[in-house]
Amino acid sequence: MKNYVKRGWKLTFKHIYIMIALFIYELIWGFFIYRTVESIVVPLLRRFPDTLGIDSAIPLFLAEAQFRLMKTDLISPYLWLFGGLLGVRILITPIINAGLLYSLCHTNDDGNTHFLQGIRTAWRPITLLYFIETLLMLTPLAWLLPLAWKLLVSSGSLTGLLEEMMPYIAGWLAWAVLLHLLFLAMQLGAVSGTGIWRTLWTALRRILPFLAISFMMWLMSIFVSATVTSVSMMLAGLVALIVNQTYYLIRTLMKVWTIAAQYETLRTDT
Is the pTM of the predicted complex or chain greater than 0.85? Predict the structure, then answer.
């Protein structure tokens, strides 16, 4: 696995300019989402009652909020807004993935990348596979959500609901991880020219090292993210802001490195 990580890092380093572009994209997207949420939350916080000497202020505020959410269409514009943002993100993600995966599979030894060529060449199969993966991942929710509501009504508490739903949630997460890895292998096969089914068969035959390298890279990403978050919380002012914004670059780096290491794991046997 050490060799896969090293080769993945070398492949990642060749895409430094693509990672900078993806970092800017994530930064702009994060800033836009932040400003959108701020424009909604800040006016609500201004209406939050002053509790000094009035014990019933907060219950009355929450009762009014519940009434307006349940009995009026107050929340409808916000649901449409966030639904639209989610739709835009879903449409953009497979296009970016197509360019990145194609470039990872076709980068030359001289360091030339093919991100834009990958978008033009592979966006259709990557988008199709992405939507199929998303549909299969969300399908169990059609059964899990009614079950969660039924258990919530019968148990009457969130603690009891979590205890009852924990095995189902763990199973769904395992299903989502397996789907992600298998569809990633098919996407790599689609852009590399190896073939979807051949690469899928390779992933199944090498499922243990494929899982091992994936979980190792994910744990590294979690550790780095936790470290950056802890450092930014201990600092203040401009330094904390710089550290916090640098997290987007580090997250992009870890994402590309993870995919490159996974690709090296499968390429060894294809």
Answer: no
d(CA 128, CA 130): 5
Separation in Å, CA 191 to CA 37, 186, 231: 37, 9, 39
* DSSP assignment of 146-181: HHHHHHHHHH-SHHHHHHHHHHHHHHHHHHHHHHHH
Q: Give residue limits of the domains in the chain.
A: 2-48+56-267
Nearest by Cα to 126 from 96, 162, 163, 168: 96
Nearest to 259 by CA among 175, 155, 182, 188: 188
Q: Which two tokens mark 78?
A: 């916000």
The pLDDT tens digits for 120-144 are: 999 999 999 999 999 999 999 889 8
Provide the token pair at 132.
């199929």
pLDDT at 269: 56
